Amino acid sequence: MHITREEIEAFPHLYKINLMNSISGYKSANLIGTKSNTGTTNVAVFSSVVHYGSNPPILGFVVRPTTVVRNTYNNIKETGSYTINAISKDIIEEAHHTSAKYSAEISEFDKTNLTPEYKNNFYAPFVKESPLQLGMKYLEEYYIKANDTILVLGEVVDLYIEETMLSEDGFLNLSKENIAAINGLDSYVVGNDFKRLSYQRPK
Amino acid sequence: MHITREEIEAFPHLYKINLMNSISGYKSANLIGTKSNTGTTNVAVFSSVVHYGSNPPILGFVVRPTTVVRNTYNNIKETGSYTINAISKDIIEEAHHTSAKYSAEISEFDKTNLTPEYKNNFYAPFVKESPLQLGMKYLEEYYIKANDTILVLGEVVDLYIEETMLSEDGFLNLSKENIAAINGLDSYVVGNDFKRLSYQRPK
After folding, report:
1. Quick one: which of A53, A65, A188, B15 could link to A58 by a disulfide (CB 3.0–4.6 Å)?
2. CB–CB of B59/B4 below 8 Å?
3. Against a cut of 0.90, is the pTM above it?
4. Which one, of B156, B16, B63, B78, lies nearest residue A172 by Cα?
5. Is A6 on the interface with B (CB under 8 A)?
6. Is residue A104 part of a domain?
7. What is the ipTM of this complex?
8. Nearest alpha-carbon partner for A87 in A78, A97, A79
9. How far apart are alpha carbons B146 and A112 in whole angstroms?
10. Chain A window 97-126: which residues touch B at a Cβ cutoff of 8 Å?
């Protein structure tokens, strides 16, 4: 089935965003935790967290300044501190609810069963229920001219993991803690049909 | 288990890249197809394709200029044309083999069972075996100072999908065509435990 750019443009809004959010393949499922300078916490689901490098360890994610996740962005810019917390099967519904448009003075931690957790004097709250928690420090950002979004880059400063996932060679088997992936805007998938391949050389 | 930044830095290279490539959660599994001005094709696996926007439809991916995927980047800069092709269960091994470091004059299409497919006068080759193929046009790029990588943004100009995946509201159910996600550097997961949630409003 062939869908042209003109047909994409002509789709109704909801149809278009469902389709366009599905075509990149599976997306990471994470909660980003922050706290404003005045102490209001915020936690929000993100599907755009992506690896930029291992040495130094850098992750990026995308924010659209005009949406609810602006709270996350503002807190990061104020404090330099945020957490990235993997969404596991047990907290999918709670995590997804953080996409509701709450105003800045309301903490999603108060509106869900997600629990803020503070460790080792890190400023931003971790999500206690998450099996894979990252303490992040803001590095730099890029304004994306093409569609008025911002790529935020940060470096990993602390890593908390359930040891069940950790292999001898550093690989984390995400399925051991039922970590989810996101399909489209609103679907969560927990993988189990697992295949690990070897380093490839020319043949 | 707590791992500090200092411990991350001190890990052996392979351990560090396995761990740092696992912590962002599941990644999209795509093959990017290109063709140079002189007609040499290239196809390479990427795990960094991510949604930037629906209106206009924009996807981004990350290249590290010093690695093998430089061929992909050079071809895109030369021609403005590339394809993004989802990796399904049947072609995981072939797709993963494209990560081997072939020189620019060798086409990975000749070294795997992946088949180049040309449609509707689009310059870059699609991967015939993929159930979800995107024709992409280069838009702009951002040099990432933090670790010498490049974010490449492109817009979707053509979309080819197996209709089995398409829902009434535009959502594509990736599991219907056994599309894979990537965990870490070298693990491919096919999801099936599927849960779709509703649009969330404040409660």
Report:
1. A53
2. no
3. yes
4. B16
5. no
6. yes
7. 0.94
8. A97
9. 35
10. 97-102, 106, 111, 119-120
For the record, the structure tokens of A3 come out as 């869908």
Count: domains in chain B: 1
Report the DSSP beta bridge partners of residue A31: A45, A85
Cβ–Cβ pairs < 8 A, chains A and B: 372
User: Which of A30, A56, A159 is facing B25, going by the closest CB pair?
Assistant: A30
For residue B88, give the 3-state DSSP assignment.
strand
Residue A84 lies in a domain: yes
A178 domain-assigned:
yes
Cis bond before residue B56 (omega within 30° of 0): yes
Which phi and psi angles does A53 have, rounded to 5°? 180, 160
SS3 A167: coil
pLDDT, averaged across chain B: 92
Q: How far apart are CA A182 and CA A185, in angstroms?
A: 7
State the pairing for strand pair A57-63/B132-144. Answer: unpaired
Q: How far from the centroid of its chain's Cα atoms is residue B146's Cα?
A: 22
Nearest to A193 by CA among B145, B108, B134, B88: B88
Q: What is the CATH number of the domain that holds A104?
A: 2.30.110.10
